Amino acid sequence: MATNPKQVVTLTVNGEAHEVLIEGRRTLADVLRENVGLTGTKLGCEHGVCGACTVLLDGSAVRSCLIFAVQAEGAEIATVEGLAEDGKLDHVQQAFTDNHGLQCGFCTAGMLMSVHALLAENPDPTEDEIRVGLNGNLCRCTGYQNIVKSTAAAAAAGKAARSSAQAS
Amino acid sequence: MSETIIESHLAIRKDKWIGKPTKRVEDPRYLTGTARYVADLELPRMLHAVYVRSPHPHARILSVDTSVLPGLGKSVWVFTGQDLRDVPPLIDHVALDNLLRTPQNVIAIDKVRFVGDAVAVVVAGDRYAAEDAAEQLSAAVEYEVLPPVPSVEAANAPGAALLFDDLGTNEIYRQTEKHGDTEKAFAAADRVFTTRFHHNRYGAAPMETRGVLANYERSEQQLTVWSSTQMPHFLRSVIAGQLGLPEHRVRVIAPEVGGGFGQKMCTSPEEIAIPFIALQLGRPVKWIEDRHEHLLAATQAKEEFINLEVAVSNEGKLLGVRGEFIGDGGGYSFNTESALIEPALAAKSFPGPYRIEAFDEEVAASLTNKSPVAAYRGVGWTAANTVREIMIDEIARELGIDPVEIRRRNMLRSDELPYRSVTGQLYDSGSYLESLELAMKTVDYDAFRTMQERLREQGRYLGLGISSYVEQTAWGSDSSAQAGTPLPSHDNSTVTVDPSGTVTVAVSTSCHGQGHETSYAQIAADGLGVDMADVKVVFGDTLTSPYGLGTYASRSAVIGGATVARASADVREQILKVAANMLEANPDDLVIEDGTISVAGTPSVSKTLAEVAYAAYWDSEVRSDEPMLTSTRFYDPPATYANGCVVVLAEVDADTGVVTLDRIVAIEDCGTVINPMIVEAQVQGAIVQGIGGALFEQFVYGDDGQPLTTTYMDYLIPTSTDVPPIEVLSLESPSPFSIGGIKGMGEGGQIAAPAAVANAVADALAPFGARVRKLPLAPDYVLRLMGKIGSPNG
Ligand code: FES
Ligand code: FES
Known about the structure:
The structure holds 2 protein chains of 2 kinds.
Chain A: E1 6-13, E2 16-23, H1 28-35, E3 54-57, E4 60-63, E5 76-78, H2 91-98, H3 108-121, H4 127-133, H5 145-167
Parallel strand pairs in A: 1-5
Antiparallel strand pairs in A: 1-2, 3-4, 3-5
Helix pairs in contact in A: 2-5
Chain B: H1 27-31, E1 47-53, E2 59-64, E3 76-80, E4 111-112, E5 118-124, H2 127-138, E6 141-145, H3 152-155, E7 171-179, H4 182-188, E8 191-199, E9 211-217, E10 222-227, H5 232-243, E11 250-253, H6 270-281, E12 285-288, H7 291-297, E13 304-312, E14 318-328, H8 343-349, E15 359-366, H9 381-399, H10 403-410, E16 419-420, E17 426-427, H11 432-443, H12 445-457, E18 461-473, H13 477-483, E19 491-497, E20 503-507, H14 516-528, E21 535-538, H15 556-583, E22 590-593, E23 596-599, E24 602-608, H16 609-618, E25 629-635, E26 640-652, E27 659-669, H17 676-696, E28 726-731, H18 748-764, H19 779-785
Helix pairs in contact in B: 5-6, 8-9, 9-18, 14-15, 15-16, 17-18
């Protein structure tokens, strides 16, 4: 087969720089998973509907199956692997396990990243706002009940953390 | 609820853990992105496989010109059906004489029978290169296009093209069976109601598609297959048989599985073809299905036609039913349970929680040029429940009886159980009426009716839909026979305490989201008297787990749970024996609590489990004849039946036909509950899948046999904004038949929800005389039901 030209791209993922040699047509999702070796980001549709591949690009949620890795050069990319610190779950992850917000776990990485983006924009969402904020992430297992509950709990935990930070 | 006394030989130890909403021990790896699904696995020198699939619903393959591919045999490899002609075709396992068989080659040889049927597999060093080559090869396949058979009606029309010429027909099964005296019932009837119902074709669509990675170590003659499967051991047996390998040289691993819902229980042709190719090439080969391919080629579910005649008295008593259940099987009568999986199971489960004493069933299945139909949560039972509950509401409306009242008049009472239904299903125990009453109380039924009436005057259409159900669980030999598709089976667990006193539980069921690592650890912890943190549950690898059928049909809690309880009880006895030697006491006087063994009433005379386990392995003075602290136990339970009731409150927008769900209340009774948090979430998830089937989901095929729903933009699964809050309440009628009184659960929500939604819509649209005759209730159909466009069921 004819081989396509490759180029060197530097991606900053969870604060760490990765240099990869890739074809221009490779999606960010594939490069994160196969070239960088971070397989926590999942592919559920590869056509931009399911949200399983959601990562943060400079803080905004994007579907990594819909953009090329070369487009992410220079941006801060955040994936599920960067959430926990020293093995300690962050407040969103903690809320999801406390409230049984996952079953098979396949949608979970994308869901957690979307929750982070949602709460960054709206730290104190109503239940309706949570539902609207997450309706681009499909989950086939939970029926969303506990995902909504987990997100509300994460928002409350974030709020508590902020006010104790202010008080101290 | 009936007071059920569990007989002592069925009792299990229930102490600190069983019944508690314990947080899941498996969560951290999913939350941190370290859980590995098959797509995440990589092996040295791994190749990537991509399928070339038929663009035609029905065609003969004339030629596949592989010479168009540069680098063939060096950097690109192709396998066609001809290359796999020595692999025997897949055939269903149902033991019925007059069911015609439709052998399916794992890659089509002469003919393709649906859009998406496998024509060739292209293998290359990376997925992108394999996709390029597959695209090139697709253009180099020559077909002779045959007339398509897009529906059951077309399949049985005179002169229809035949999917399998040698069968001489597309209808592969038709059989009638009489239960009770329907002649008498119909003669005694005041009224006879009829319906012709089309249950839609929808499917599991797990978030993780299918995927297989296979590796053959030639020097070891060892094949290892990682597959996103629900049944690793069964798959090992099938692979060994199909590829002619000794079974001990085949190892199947189900890594993390991103949902299955029944779809990943039968053998996919890809699960045979990919290992075959890995064997040929001597290199690891991975195939990961993409979503488009999944919506084309993975099995679909639930499509059937149900025609009913129901004999009733003026008081609304159901006297007798005649039912015809016709399955649309798709291109092949699929392996495992055949095309009867829908119609046969629907027929047998039709009576549900009601006393129906006369029932004639006619079950049929036809082949069509569509993707094959196989299992999806609530097989057959969903369609049966949907049509029955819709019919009951219609009868009530016609007779001027309240829908709750008509159910009360026909429902089996808990003190009438055990009860054998007219179709031979032995309901062990339950709370049919109690579930209904609790649901109605929870939604405040009378208040709803008042509000409904008031809002109707303002032109708003609110409706309430009830759906009561019985869910057959504990799918072993007895359960499958009672369902009408006999499949003998059993499952096993091994519980082992190691020399340090920690516990490993190896089970043959195979988890894909149900939280088995938590539930089984709860059972073992109680059984042994240890902390849950000291228990590790392993499964999904045929090398490390005992043989069994895996996880499907709501069987794991009741079967797997019982095997863990039984093996734990044995090991507990072994521990007590050694401890008795150490403490110079009688084993009967000893207790284990929180990992400490002591003389009952004298806690100071004690040993820790770690001390006892150490001595059991290393101290020849006190060890037993068989020093290892381990036991393997099996279980093949009698059938059990969970039950419940789902009530949906909905509003129909009279201008747009859009249905909005406002509230759902679900009552679930699955006997003894191991982890209520997991049970609640299973109910919620299942209900939302049922909502998908009721409102959005359908695999649509054109008259030309072309699939029209091949992306997630066309095949719509529910999102977070489509579903209302779902309240789940529990009743607990332990089974008098099964170990621990556990029944199993997980499908009831899917079984019940479509009818609850349909009944809510019909109730809302009662002023228009709406009669639901098909699903989904998409806006255009709702407008038809209201007479606003076209004809209602045209
Ligand atoms: S995989 Fe990217 S949106 Fe589905
Ligand atoms: S937890 Fe399985 S898809 Fe969301």
